[in-house]
Amino acid sequence: MNEIITATKIRGIMQSQSLNNIHRISSRQTSAIPGIILTENLGKSVITSDGMLHILSSINLIIKSGESIAIIGESGSGKSTLISLLAGLDTPTMGSIRLNGKCLTSMNEDGRAGLRNELIGFVFQSFQLLPGLTALENVMLPLELRGDKHAKTLATELLARVNLSHRLDHTPQKLSGGEQQRVALARAFVTRPAILFADEPTGNLDSKTGATIINLLFDLNLENHTTLILVTHDQALAARCQRTIKLDAGHMVTD
CA 200 to CA 223: how far, in whole Å? Predict the structure, then answer.
């Protein structure tokens, strides 16, 4: 009699194949592939007054260089935690993350900060602009931290690309929400990062301004060949991406 393959066994086979794929890619020279991300059994748990809370469990991902990925799910499903881990802004309690062949999870904070500066751009829902700096100075800052002598020229050019040449000397409090988000986009792209993370990039914007930001985001992504990873509740934004990853209670349910 032929063996009956249960749904549980099929899932086990698929998970095994996924892990084997990760091992095969990890064994190659992935450091030569800019923007590639690999995770293996990635998890995040915290201790609460009610016991252990598992925010993420067994996340196995292969994100190829240049891909655009939307991470979706209900509030509390672990979306923001996942991109914080992938960007090295937080540390997992289990599993591993590799960026461009480098093991992010084996690095200390200084090492992770250096890798972020080298590879990563980040767009926050709340913009995270420095209030005491002008639009131009906010965009120049990542380049100045690298010691780039052309920081002002490059920042000016990118602010022109997002139609803010007339607002270079304005501080964030003198800018509208849409203008602040365009400054944040320019700052994220000015270093030409291999990987760009965006956490609800249109969440604080009206629909018209949000559509403008989405178009700019994908235009700049295409021009710079950046790996783009978005957290969003916006179905129109998710539909623009090549792949969608859905989280449910910390588990990846679709990819």
Answer: 22
3-state secondary structure 129-143: CCCCCCHHHHHHHHH
Radius of gyration, CA atoms only, the chain: 19
Residue 58 and residue 41: Cα distance in Å, rounded? 4
- pLDDT 10s digits, 48-82: 988 899 999 999 999 998 899 999 999 889 999 99
CATH number at residue 74: 3.40.50.300
Asked, for residue 229, whether it belongs to a domain, the answer is yes
In a domain, 78, yes or no: yes
Domain that holds residue 39: 7-254
Q: What is the 3-state secondary structure (H, E, C) of 60-89?
A: EEEECCCCEEEEECCCCCCHHHHHHHHCCC
* H helix intervals, the chain: 7-26, 79-86, 109-119, 135-145, 151-161, 177-189, 207-224, 235-239
Q: pTM here?
A: 0.79
Asked if 87 and 197 touch (Cβ cutoff 8 Å), the reply is yes
Name the DSSP letter for residue 94: E
Could you tell me if residue 152 is inside a domain? Answer: yes
Q: Are 26 and 4 contacting, i.e. CB atoms less than 8 angstroms apart?
A: no
**Structural domain count of the chain:** 1
Domain annotation covers residue 2: no
